[in-house]
Design brief:
This protein is mainly α. The chain is 83% helix and 0% strand.
Length: 179
């Protein structure tokens, strides 16, 4: 029996939340507007938080849930840079979650990924936002491999590919516009 089939049978609810997170993870890179990207990021955080919790992967559950909360704040704050920067208050909470749920290298990967993602969400410029979200991908995928979160891993791989293409496209468009 494959690992995915086994996971589906053992925890269908975790698989369902993982699939919903996967959908959000696959679509965020195609959006052009910051609010749309942040909305999809909220879905990723909320859904994967539930998936990780149901799998007993508490570092991931904690930081993904915290990420969802930061996405919600970033969405409602919008373009007010002075208020958007308050997202930095979430970073010490990441450290607390890491301390409380520490389980070795997997926790380090989760903490690094969420820190880069949170720094990205605080950006008003979509190029910086995309760059930081993409930089987080290898750390998130490493966490997913260790804890066995297959939907999140698939999402991370496909999302990173799409995000790389969209980042290159945005860079090219900006160069064309400046000429």
């Amino acid at each position: 029996m494959s690992g995915f089939t086994e996971l589906l049978q053992e925890s269908p609810l975790a698989t369902a939340f993982g699939a919903a997170g996967l959908l959000c993870q696959l679509i965020w890179p195609i959006f052009r507007a910051r609010k749309s990207i942040i909305t999809a990021q909220f879905g990723i955080g909320a859904d994967y938080s539930m998936q990780y919790a149901l799998l007993g992967a508490w570092s991931g559950a904690g930081v993904a849930g915290l990420g969802a909360m930061q996405s919600a704040l970033a969405f409602f704050v919008g373009e007010r840079s002075w208020f958007r920067k308050t997202g930095i208050v979430f970073l010490p909470v990441v450290g607390v979650i890491g301390y409380v749920s520490w389980s070795g290298i997997e926790s380090l990967f989760a903490l690094t990924a969420v820190t880069l993602i949170m720094l990205g969400r605080m950006q008003s410029d979509t190029l910086r936002l995309r760059s930081l979200l993409l930089a987080a991908a290898p750390f998130g995928m490493s966490y997913d491999v260790i804890v066995g979160a297959l939907p999140a891993l698939i999402g991370g791989i496909v999302s990173a590919i799409i995000a790389s293409v969209m980042l290159a496209r945005e860079i090219k468009l900006r160069k064309s516009a400046s000429n």
